[in-house]
Design goal:
- This protein has eight helices and 13 strands.
- The protein has two domains: 7-135, Cytochrome Bc1 Complex, Chain D, domain 2 (Orthogonal Bundle), CATH 1.10.760; 146-380, Porin, CATH 2.40.160.40.
- The protein has a twelve-stranded antiparallel β-barrel with strand order 1-2-3-5-6-7-8-9-10-11-12-13.
- Helix content is 20%, strand content 36%.
- A hairpin with a 6-residue loop joins strand 11 (332-343) and strand 12 (350-359).
- The chain has helices at residues 7-11, 15-38, 48-61, 70-73, 87-90, 95-104, 124-135, 306-309; strands spanning 164-172, 178-189, 193-206, 209-214, 217-228, 233-243, 258-268, 273-284, 292-302, 314-326, 332-343, 350-359, 369-376.
Length: 387
Amino acid sequence: MIRHGSLARKARLSERAIAMATVCLFLVLATALRGQSADKTAATNSNSGEQIFQSNCAACHGKDGKGAPQQLRGFKAPDTFPDFTRCDQTTPEPNTSWEAAITYGGRFRGFSQIMPSFGQALTPDQIREVARYLRTFCTNPHWPRGELNLPRALVTEKAFPESEEVISTSVNAQGAPGVETHYIHEQRFGIRNQIEIDVPIKFAYQDHTWYGGIGDVTFGYKREIYSSLKKGNIFSLFGGVIAPTGSTKRGFGSGTTTFETFAAYDQLFRNNVFVQTQLGGELPVDTMKAPQAMFWNTAVGQMFAPQHGLGRLWSPMMEVVMNRDFQAGAKTNWDIVPQMQVTISRRQHVRGSLGVRVPVNNTDGRPVQVMFYLLWDWADGKLTEGW
């Protein structure tokens, strides 16, 4: 997509660039009106997206989707001017991201004003057809599609490989005061892979004094095994090592290296209802210091957006969280986590979530926690962009 320029940059836009954008808009409008008067049903046939793009969009974006040469475009392309043949740039985004920029213009999603609004020139069906045609420029079918990149839950890890920075915090709302914050770096590489580093910082009120320190750090690798946009599902496996970096004296660490593994399966249904499931276990090297354990987390939610599904995204969710240690006398703990995620930036690459984790059983020593996070999808642009 196209980055939202500064006021100084806008002032330097050449008259030729403005004229080119105006001509493109006029051509699209003329084509749309001509198509509607001739045959409204033609707007939804399998070739309409290609016809609209090649007739009206190729002047800027090139017939091959790589972008027309600058001497033909008439303006210098912003840094994020799209190359639709780059699967790594296009597949992480859902069609609605492209439809929003086409309908309301680049500024609507925090990109450059060079991309004009075509909402008055094209019907919603025509815009959807153009977005579908843009997908054909990525010829590698193995990249998982952005529609399967579901909203991040507070506890349950999703299957989609990501490039994100997350700061996730939980605060004890009752019982012994305590705060735990996780600084999580996720970096995608290749088509299916992701590395993850999770650094917990813990604070606990003990003996009338606050103590703080680092917890056990996790180094992990996730790989998408299977995904299908048609079926609406994606499946991944994760393997990681939890290093004993936390203080055992303060209860910030286990005191032993632990191997963690889990499987993650996400399912997207009609009307943007989704389910995310994570099943895994923890295998410490020294079981005298920490027990083996298993966990099962499930999140159910739905995505809502105004402006025909193209505006700010709201995602209410409910999680069911289970964990159990494998040692004598251990019990299975169940929690529920109602929550709400919302996109904060116009580009939707900065998001926040707020929820409450409530123990359902075995409540002694397990406090209610207020949980929240701030997420930055850095693959979509700098933190200061897209507002």
